[in-house]
Amino acid sequence: MSPVRDxxxxxxxxxxxxxxxxxxxxxxxxxxxxxxDEGYCTPAAGDGREALALLKQxxxxxxxxxxxxxxxxxxxxxxxxxxxxxxxxxxxxxxxxPFDAETLDRLGVAEVLVKPFVLDAVFSHVERLLSPAGA
Amino acid sequence: xxxxxxxxxxxxxAVQFYESDVFLLGAIDEFCGAxxxxxxxxxxxxxxxxxxxxxxxWGADGMDIAALQASGRYLALDAVEALTGFxxxxxxxxxxxxxxxxxxxxxxxxxxRMVYAFGEMVAxxxxxxxxxxxxxxxxxxxxLQQTLPFALLCAYPMHQLGGEALSALIEGVCNAHTEVTPxxxxxxxxTSDSQLRAIAVLQQKARSLDAEVAERRRSEQLLQTLLQxxxxxxxxxxxxxxxxxxxxxxxxxxxxxxGFVCLHAGEGMTTHGYVQGETIEPLERCWPAGEGLPGRQLxxxxxxxxxxxxxxxxxxxxxxxxxxxxxxIDVPILGSDDDILGxxxxxxxxxxxxxxxxxxxxxxxxxxxxxxxxxNAHLYREAQAAVRLRxxxxxxxxxxxxxPLTVLAxxxxxxxxxxxxxxxxxxxxxxxxxxxxxxxxxxxxxLLDQLLDVASLRxxxxxxxxxxxxxxxxxxxxxxxxxxxxxxxxxxLEAPETxxxxxxxxxxxxxxxxxxxxxxxxxxDGGTIQVTLSHDAPxxxxxxxxxxxxxxxxxERRAQVFERFFQAHAEEFRSxxxxxxxxxxxxVRQHGGTIxxxxxxxxxxxxxxxxxxxxxxxxxxxxxxxxxxxxxxGD
Lengths: 135, 635
What we know:
The complex is a heterodimer.
Chain A: E1 18-21, H1 25-37, E2 44-45, H2 48-55, E3 62-65, H3 74-83, E4 91-95, H4 101-106, E5 111-114, H5 119-129
Parallel strand pairs in A: 1-2, 1-3, 3-4, 4-5
Helix pairs in contact in A: 2-3
Chain B: E1 13-18, H1 21-37, E2 41-46, H2 48-61, H3 65-70, E3 74-78, H4 79-86, E4 87-88, E5 91-92, H5 94-108, E6 115-119, H6 121-127, H7 131-145, E7 150-157, H8 165-176, E8 179-181, H9 184-187, H10 192-234, H11 239-254, E9 258-265, E10 268-276, E11 279-288, H12 292-299, E12 304-306, H13 317-322, E13 325-334, E14 340-349, H14 357-422, H15 427-457, E15 467-470, H16 471-482, E16 489-494, E17 500-503, H17 505-521, E18 527-536, E19 541-548, H18 580-590, E20 594-598, E21 605-612
Parallel strand pairs in B: 1-7, 1-8, 2-3, 2-6, 6-7, 16-18
Antiparallel strand pairs in B: 4-5, 9-10, 9-14, 10-11, 12-13, 13-14, 15-17, 18-19, 19-21, 20-21
């Protein structure tokens, strides 16, 4: 069930925000457009460092994570995420690069979407994995 | 195996070697003809043509052959037929021979006549390769002579008894006879002096033939050996293995105690190891042109042979002192274009016999085989490198193309979903979607162009399509087109009013755009990009500088700046396949210009392009000497 969208920042947990981490403006915009349409709240970051900074301010219900980014890539971010105390939102990796399944597994990545992805796949993963409100 | 012949009876058993049929007929006539004329009996066991020629001759002489036959004084038999009468299982059967031939002789000897027999059967057996049988038959004839009185003449055609295999036969034959008459080239000589000369000449000929045969054998042997070595070398495409095997074979081939192989790399001949027997000791040496025997190959390639070498004979001190090298052979390895690929050097130590010219030739032959194998190994390496590059290329291309494709497809999908859901699409939404679609499609197209550019760059001629354009205007336009990309950035341009140049405008525009693009991309935090275009009149060229104050390039990556797929911050950084600089350098080089990066103290990167305004004079080749990357030509 999709919550009613709210443009407050930082978004409260009940909004179940989806954090988008990707340096490509096109992908960024596409994911935001698609998810906002479905009523989700979608704060976004351009790389791992930015994303970590945002996490200090709120807890997302799900993270859509690109692997190849400047300054701090997806792997480094996921590792940093795991080192934090709870909560640990589910992470879906969205990537065009070849990836090492073992590494992602170890980092607790819930799912991998390979570009070019189909929007239906995005929605289905989001619906399935998005933590229930307040969790 | 030579059959033992029972000693010849006191009766006459002569053998005549002949070269011509005429001579043979003369001999038979002297033997049998004379007998018939003297009233004795004769039997001729010969081939049909010989019998016919003989009887014709006798007929012409006035002998009545028919009468002689009727009176039982003359009998002619076909040699081949007669043979079948007593040959049994490839061997002459004694009993049958005695019965058949002995029978005829007895009949002819009726009335106490003396019988003169001529037989060719032994010759037929010998020519047919049945040497044992021939000698056995000679023995049977000898045996028969012990019980029956008759004189016997055999004849062998000399020209059909050539070859070493028959020398044993000849000896056996001669031993079986009481008289031996050589063929006419001796026998027909008039004086004993000329006969002696003939013998001396024959002796010399025999010796020289012996020597030639021995030489042929050695050549055959060498050929066999080289063939085997060749197969061994060509079985390996790995250069290291190949070189090791090569030296070991060289040592074996000429009986050397140690040796090494050099490859011509850059300025000199380089080796990485010294081989002794089966062991390779690591040894790094490089001889520049002129130094030592290997260096001499670079100046004057030839097969060098040095025995009892002194200090200045070209054998390195290391080899003389450490490995006791005293003699050496050094041969060049020449490629198919006669270019020097390297050399092989082998050494003999103290106590080893000196190397011979023959051994030098052997090593030279080995070097020729080695050349092919080495060229193959090089080609293989190049092929492997090309495959690796292609795979890298495909991987990167595949990755880079996915992003625009994702965005394009995604936005279109989104628009469709909205349309289905709402039954309509707002103008704004539609415009936005189409903007994205066209934008991403353009990006895909651009990436594809870059890929194709790289692929076709090799095939394209190295001469750009020049036209006279205003370079200053070109740069201004490129800068203007860049401006919308970086809002946080400012691009400052300094350029003359006009700057005419004869260049490939689209190509140079690509270069300028690429440099500006990089500057923008490597300045994620904004800042100023300084672009300066100036005219270096004394050198007839333009100088373009693009300087950013951004991320710069890490020290360890600077050398690779112009390589394909180079990304300064590889794993982390985004888009672009790293082809831009590679292509830019190619284009600038094609114009006879240079391009180089500098990394100022206060950060960022500055690219400097020096571009000739006119095409270089025909004598000049590829420029680009200032490029920081050194790769093999043809990259």
